[in-house]
Write a structure and sequence with these properties.
Layout (H helix, E strand, L loop, with lengths): L2 H8 L3 H7 L26 H6 L12 H14 L3 E5 L2 H12 L5 E5 L4 H13 L3 E5 L15 E7 L11 H10 L3 E5 L4 H4 L9 E4 L14 E5 L4 H11 L5 H33 L4 E5 L9 H7 L6 E6 L6 H10 L5 E2 L9 E4 L16 E5 L5 H16 L2
Parallel strand pairs: 2-3, 2-4, 4-5, 5-6, 10-11
Antiparallel strand pairs: 1-7, 6-7, 8-9, 9-12, 11-12
Helix pairs in contact: 2-10, 4-10, 5-6, 5-9, 12-13
């Protein structure tokens, strides 16, 4: 990227930056998109260069022009010293855990965490000799009482998976750094457009790029971006583990980034429209959306975040005896909403949330939690679809 273009992008708006980062047409005969470079072996001009690895590209797992372009884009978005690409969002969590934790260490994990992360902690990490404790997402600076002499990592996720609790990230990071802990954050919900973790004291920002950066439900990938202090150890772990992002997937993520800002605006608008409508319904006990004034963490969200994405939950009013039946009836009646995992794509999705693994933030008592991913459809059509679901649940 030319220097004058770099200076222009510094003060540019998010959609302008997304349109122009992670590419350098002058390096590729003027083509606006970087090419997909498929590579394993890279040749060296002579033995001395090979011995010292004294050239930009040395092997396909280390980097290619395609993967490097995507990493450059994420570095720009995150304000990071470096970014690694990994094969999934879960790998984006597990690789930094392996990078920064050793046998005998202790880690604090937010109780509203992504369920596969909890499974990794309770199985692999414990087997490797790492002690784990879970903490309340709303603990803020009170997390200091949970830090032990061997605490090395604090993992945050804001909003929390499925129930969307907001964390005071700055307060947690300030406490963590006083005790020499690395702070990791899963920022998949907000993306760096609506929240930049490193600006709030986070050391390592984690994303399932499967979600909004891709935007089309056809790529599985994760990214991890670190500040200057923790970048070398992250890159070292990636190389040691032999993990890399595929060039074809990187190309498609780059393409998805160009429209991510525009898509997020639509996701946000439609999700808020539907969330506000759900709050008016008698058959809804609560709506779990951080951008609603009724949500407990709303003030922190409003202070720290620049926007909200398209995924949230609500509590369907139901007695314990018929909660599961009502949830299934509601879901089975939907048409535009597909029943599927993941989110961030163009299509709307719904599922019945399982919160049985929680140790602190238990499931709401008023009824089952239904998670909605609001896609790019028209909100009026989605409301009609949800009406059908509510009518079906009412018959139970």
């Amino acid at each position: 990227m030319k220097k004058n273009k770099e200076s222009l992008l510094t003060g540019a708006g998010p959609n302008t930056r997304l349109a122009h980062m992670g590419n350098d047409p002058s390096s590729y005969h003027g083509f606006v998109n970087p090419p997909v470079v498929h590579a394993s072996t890279v040749l060296f001009p002579d033995a001395a260069t090979m011995e010292k690895r004294a050239q930009k590209y040395t092997y396909g797992t280390r980097a290619t022009p395609t993967t490097e372009a995507l990493c450059d884009a994420f570095n720009e978005l995150e304000g990071a010293a470096g970014t690694i690409l990994v094969p999934s969002g879960l790998a984006a969590i597990t690789v930094p855990f392996l990078a920064y934790l050793s046998a005998g260490d202790h880690a604090l994990i937010v109780d509203s965490v992504y369920t596969p992360c909890r499974n990794f902690c309770d199985t692999m990490l414990k087997r490797l000799g790492v002690a784990i404790d879970y903490y309340d997402p709303e603990i803020g600076a009170g997390i200091e009482a949970l830090i032990k002499p061997n605490t090395r990592l604090i993992h945050t996720e804001a909003p929390g998976s499925n129930t969307f609790e907001i964390q005071d990230i700055r307060a947690i990071a300030d406490v963590a750094h006083r005790h020499g802990c690395v702070v990791a954050m899963d920022n998949t919900w907000a993306t760096p457009l609506y929240f930049r973790p490193l600006d709030f004291g986070v050391d390592v920002s984690i994303h399932a790029t499967t979600k909004y950066p891709s935007g089309h439900s056809d790529i599985i990938m994760g990214s991890v971006s670190a500040n200057a202090k923790y970048w070398p150890k992250l890159e070292e772990a990636r190389i040691a583990l032999g993990i890399c992002g595929a060039p074809d997937d990187s190309y498609l993520i780059l393409r998805g980034l160009r429209t991510m800002g525009v898509r997020l605006e639509h996701h946000q608008k439609s999700a808020l429209d539907i969330a506000r409508w759900l709050e008016t319904r008698d058959d809804v006990a609560r709506v779990l959306h951080p951008a609603l004034p009724s949500f407990p963490g709303h003030e922190i969200w409003k202070r720290d975040f620049k926007g909200a994405s398209g995924i949230f939950s609500f509590v369907l009013k139901a007695d314990a005896d018929n909660a599961r039946a009502k949830a299934h009836a509601f879901l089975d009646a939907l048409s535009f909403f597909g029943l599927g995992y993941s989110w961030g794509g163009y299509e709307s999705l719904a599922l019945h949330v399982n919160l049985s693994d929680r140790t602190i933030r238990k499931a709401p008592p008023e009824g089952p939690v239904i998670r909605l991913q609001i896609g790019l459809e028209d909100a009026a059509d989605l409301r009609k679809d949800l009406e059908v679901g509510f009518a079906a649940a009412a018959e139970i």
